[in-house]
Write a structure and sequence with these properties.
single chain, Rossmann fold, 2 domains, six-stranded parallel β-sheet, 13 strands
Length: 455
């Protein structure tokens, strides 16, 4: 632990002031003896995809700062992706994991703990709209009864000093709230995405939104600590709820785990092709179309680039997108290994020449952007003005363009292509990467947990 604290002290100077807890919070000490925190997280390994990474790294490193987590989650069930390596990593860190039954659509679809094919965007959005109309705050509300019952058992069996709920799904917040009311144990909530301002949430009537607002208000008024992943969510909460101040809401962005990079395989020897990599999923709100169109322009201008550039997609990649790439003349450049476990994702990222992302919601910061930063690779961000562009400030190796501006995207690809040919691709700023070290971020969370006890 001494070595870890020494290393973190060296990294502390790299943090941005708008991404850390208040000065008062920095003065909070860690508990002298280990304290227990009950972590409520519906999404947790072996489930894969982006929703599990943040909480997995938090619970991995919390014991280093005097907090022993017990994770309350759902039993292993069918899901769109699984990551057993990430589960093993958490288990090897000594984290206790307690699983319960649940009644929600995923359990109905995946009783045999298998990987489920993701439905097409149209039906998926339609079913999501129906579920948000009928079920509040989301379609995971069927887990609440089981989680509260098991949570009370855990809180009665051993002494816990805090409850941490991470969302979405926002059912997690309601579980934490009820456990807080029944036990008096301080509740800390962690917003990975906004609630009322979430573009993925559908409110059929003003009454639905009003009901959701009432739930959020109740949660926030009873929370000892409020953590958000970016400044935009913090500002939205403070603007909506007059009882909140800047001191109440703490920004802890997502990050990357340096151990994922240190223990990854060595980077590949520079090959004959320039490799663009996208990590993650596409849905109706995100599309590779504009990058495909832009790449088509580059291929038209530089015919030799057909044999010098490849587009890699790490994650589930739909057949319709392959067909789109072929239609736009870039199908031969595709490399689609499919969904791979997280440690292998990092191997792929390290093998890239340029990492790219596409996002349309200015309030969302996908966790992968911080892993991109951790590799210090050049980043091509197709994103509107908003949080992502702020995150990439001072990175020194990022190009940001509007997500649907084909010509601007083509120009950015061409610039990177010329730099690659000249062997002069930029390298991301080391201090920017260090600021998103998962250990530093977990230390900030540990201080907030300790503050809830008034240590």
């Amino acid at each position: 632990m001494d070595n870890l604290h020494q290393e973190l002290e060296e990294l502390h100077g790299t943090k941005r002031h708008d991404e850390e807890p208040s000065v008062e919070m920095q003065e909070i000490s860690f508990p002298e003896k280990p304290c227990r925190v009950l972590v409520i997280a519906y999404y947790f390994p072996p489930m894969g995809l982006s929703g599990v990474f943040r909480v997995s790294k938090f619970v991995k490193y919390l014991p280093k700062f005097g907090w022993q987590p017990t994770v309350l989650t759902v039993e292993t069930t069918g899901y769109y992706a699984h990551d057993y390596a990430l589960l093993k990593e958490v288990e090897e860190a000594g984290v206790e994991i307690v699983r319960t039954k649940t009644l929600d659509p995923l359990r109905i679809l995946g009783r045999r703990k298998r990987t489920i094919a993701m439905p097409p965007d149209g039906p998926r959005r339609f079913l999501s709209g129906i579920s948000h109309t009928i079920l509040q705050p989301d379609n995971k509300i069927g887990w609440k009864h089981y989680a509260v019952r098991e949570g009370l058992n855990l809180l009665q069996e051993k002494e816990y000093e805090a409850i941490l709920s991470t969302a979405p799904p926002f059912t997690d917040f309601l579980i934490g709230l009820e456990l807080h009311h029944k036990t008096g144990i301080p509740l800390i909530v962690d917003y990975r995405d906004p609630w009322l301002d979430n573009q993925h949430y559908f409110y059929a009537t003003p009454l639905h939104r009003h009901y959701a607002a009432g739930m959020e208000e109740d949660v926030l008024k009873n929370s000892e600590g409020i953590v958000v992943v970016n400044r935009r969510i913090k500002e939205q909460l403070i603007a909506r709820w007059p009882f909140l101040t800047h001191e109440h809401v703490h920004i802890i962005p997502s990050g990357f785990d340096p151990e994922d990079i240190v223990f990854s395989r060595p980077e590949r020897v520079k090959g004959k092709k320039m490799r663009f990599i996208y990590s993650g999923l596409f849905d109706a709100r995100r599309t590779p179309r504009y990058l495909f169109e832009a790449m088509g322009k580059v291929f038209a201008k530089y015919p030799e680039a057909h044999n010098e550039i490849e587009l890699c997609f790490i994650g589930t990649f739909r057949e319709t997108h392959k067909q789109l790439a072929a239609k736009l003349g870039v199908g031969s450049a595709l490399v689609t290994p499919g969904y791979v476990e997280h440690r292998e994702v990092m191997d792929w990222l390290l093998s890239s020449d340029v990492l790219w992302l596409t996002i349309y919601d200015p309030s969302i910061t996908p966790g992968k952007v911080y892993e991109y930063i951790g590799t210090r690779k050049p980043i091509l961000a197709l994103a509107p003005e908003g949080v992502i562009r702020k995150v990439l400030e001072d990175y020194e190796a990022a190009t940001c363009v509007a997500p649907n501006s084909v010509q601007d995207i083509a120009d950015a690809i061409e610039r990177y292509y010329q730099l690659w040919k000249a062997g002069e691709l930029p390298v991301g700023a080391a201090n920017k990467a260090d600021a998103h070290d998962a250990r530093i971020l977990t230390e900030q969370l540990a201080r907030i947990l300790s503050h809830s006890m008034r240590l």
